[in-house]
Design a protein that fits this description.
Helix content is about 35%, strand content about 20%. The chain has about 280 residues and is α/β, with parallel strands linked by helices. It has 2 domains: about 130 residues, 3-Layer(aba) Sandwich (Rossmann fold), CATH 3.40.50.10860; about 140 residues, Rossmann fold, CATH 3.40.50.720. The strands form 2 sheets. Strands 2-1-3-5-6-4 form a 6-stranded mixed sheet, sandwiched between helices. A 6-stranded parallel sheet has the order 9-8-7-10-11-12, with helices on both faces. Helix 1 runs antiparallel to helix 10, helix 4 crosses helix 5 and helix 9 crosses helix 10. The radius of gyration is 19 Å and the shape is globular. The chain starts with 6 loop residues before the first strand and ends with a helix. Bound molecules: NADP nicotinamide-adenine-dinucleotide phosphate. The site of NADP nicotinamide-adenine-dinucleotide phosphate has 24 residues, from helix 4, helix 5 and helix 9. NADP nicotinamide-adenine-dinucleotide phosphate (NAP) binds next to helix 4, helix 5 and helix 9.
Amino acid sequence: MVSSEIKNFGILGWPVGHSLSPQMYKAAFKTAGFPNYNYILLPIHSGKLFFAVEGIKGLEFRGVNVTIPHKSTIMKYLDAIDADAMIIGAVNTVVNDGGMLTGYNTDVVGFLSALAEANFLPEDCHAVILGAGGAARAVLWGLCKRRAEYITIGARNPQKAQALANDFLTYGNVEAFDWLSDEFKEIIQTADILINTTPLGMFPNVDDMPPVDLKILPEGALVYDIIYNPFETKLLRTAKELGYPTLGGLSMLLLQGQEAFRLYTGELPDLKVMQRALEKGLNLK
Ligand code: NAP
């Protein structure tokens, strides 16, 4: 059934010009029978965030996606925070129910659903996370939720990695290391999965990759790069050449978008339509 109702959505961040969200959600809304749901870019400077959030209410936006640099700072302006987002400390989706704004983090759903699609069971695994930024927090929480047995964080800044590990010690067995240290090199030799959450290798710096010797991973370890542009990063290409199974970031992006769509509309989108919009935006097809 086609609805004539008008609702507004957007992506709030700075910068947001590169975002593929407008194409992805617009295509999904249209196919789901919501041709009058609008989705726009909302480039908002940090100093204006409070007014932007008031604007969501005043202009009666149904929802907004949130990206860098507002994912954490927006939390103090919202009326409620979902439990996952509270633990992660970041919101990437806000839903407006009649002026009541609730923040969610759909990255964790996207990450876990992508793992499930790849038939990887995180329960009882040894997971290695590269990086200690915002995405690492969502990935770490996802692994704790699924009861990974042991989680190792490796990063260029060991203090930051340790602070991240400390935040999650009550939820799992988490340790942090300098990723160039001998301890880290030893410990990753028992990894079941290695997940890159740094931007190393992301477009346009496609020749970069994290400084990890993939050859020392056990046979069959899954190498997962959450970067989605390019579709196959240098890390994944190298892992594939060495015979490891690999997973790229596009499915996480798509599945976190599916979850946001569900929160906005109460319905599940046509994933193929969303995927085609993303692939077109990334010039993949
Ligand atoms: P972030 O908060 O800025 O964190 C980035 C992390 O990578 C930090 O630990 C940072 O270390 C490290 N890092 C950055 N540049 C580095 C370099 N040159 N060498 C070594 N380490 C470096 O960013 P984020 O939000 O977590 O995003 C990280 C990546 O994940 C991006 O590529 C993003 O596109 C991707 N992502 C994908 C999805 C998806 O759906 N597929 C979702 C979210 C994010 P320092 O703290 O030392 O700076």
